[in-house]
Amino acid sequence: MAYIRLDSQAFFHNLTAIQNTLSHTPHPPKLALVLKDNAYGHGLQQIAPLAKSFGIESVFVKNYEEAISIAQLFDTITALYGEIPPNAPSNIWASIPSLQALQSCATAHKNAHQMRHIELKVNIGMHRNGIAINELDRALSLLENSRHIRLAGVLGHNGYGDNDNESFFTAIQAFSDVREKVRKWCEARNYPMPRFHSLSTSGALRLGLHNARSDDLGDVVRIGIGAYGYHTSELPLHIALKPIASLYAQKISSLHLKKGDRIGYGGVSVVEKDGVFSTYDVGYGDGLFRVGAEQSLCCASGEQILPVMSMDCFSCQSQREEICVFDDVSAWARAFHTIPYMILTHLSPALKRVVV
Ligand SMILES: *Cc1c(COP(=O)(O)O)cnc(C)c1O
Asked: Thinking of the domain 8-228, which architecture would CATH place it in?
């Protein structure tokens, strides 16, 4: 059976390398790991324990279902989307993207036996999720009057970390204004200070490598793609990250084919020289993108993946019993005009994951 191999040393290497770029300030931010969408397709149940063994205390997941499945492992688990039931463990925090969501969270937890920690999401320029900056006062006064919910974090999402333009710095300034406002509000009321964070991989590396102020880095940085060994910044970032996932497939069968023979649906691939061709047990049904005549992709050992890929197998000129389909998805992302995130998150949760 095909399987995904997860290289724990590469994972620790990435986290250490990222941590090192942030260590120049007196109060470096803590690394929080983003584990949403099945740990970017790598496998939540495999990556979460590795993260814990590295010393990660805070993580971000997609929703409550992901959060509850790893609730024993971390101090805090923030569900980026959806609601948290009132009886959920108290280390599962809710990310609140609107005033309306804040209101309904307060209502839902009114009669709960425990405090629900929330992180308020503020729109700092991406104009996607989050309350508007001019709604902040209303949100804070709602919080002041809700005894069962506690403001534990304030987050923004700087959507310009990858891009070499001014908007990145505009968003940093916007978040800095939000932070000052919330700080003053908390100090005036003796309210426990929440944590502040707005940076994902590319933004954190960019500021970290340029020795930014600790305030701008925040109390934590939310590291996703970098931990898995990639970044998509259009700026050069001097850091060596290692992809941690590789995909292996097993041989199903082999055939001796002659020049002119055609392989697969529609006979798209034509044999140029007599030889042995084999099929391997992974295809687009396992979440790979369907390799067609427009893509030229090779296995890690160099054999071309012959178009067109089938649902559960692909062909190539090889006799290996086992083949490494990829050990880096960058070429796949380029071939399909997309980003590594998309190739990775599509990997089927049904594929076996093996941590080495
Ligand atoms: C996905 C996500 C991240 C992580 O982004 P990377 O580019 O993978 O580091 C950080 N914050 C939020 C809110 C996210 O949704």
From this structure: Alpha-Beta Barrel (3.20)
pLDDT at 162: 87
CA of 222 to the centre of ligand 1 (A): 6
What is the C-alpha to C-alpha distance for residues 107 and 242, in angstroms, rounded to an integer?
A: 45
Q: For the chain, list residues with pLDDT below 70.
A: none
pLDDT confidence of residue 303: 98
Domain boundaries, the chain: 8-228, 245-355
Atom of ligand 1 nearest to the CA of 232: 7
Name the residue at shortest CA distance from atom 10 of ligand 1: 200
Verify whether ligand 1 is closer than 6 Å to residue 95 (CB atom). no
How high is the pLDDT of residue 213?
Answer: 80
Determine whether 226 is exposed, middle or buried from the number of CB atoms within 10 Å of its CB (0-12, 13-18, 19+): buried
Say what the pLDDT of residue 113 is: 85
CATH class of segment(s) 245-355: mainly beta
The predicted pLDDT at position 59 comes to 98
Instruction: Indicate yes or no: pTM above 0.85.
Output: yes
Query: For residue 351, how far is its CA from the centre of ligand 1 (angstroms)?
Result: 24
End-to-end Cα separation, the chain, in angstroms: 17
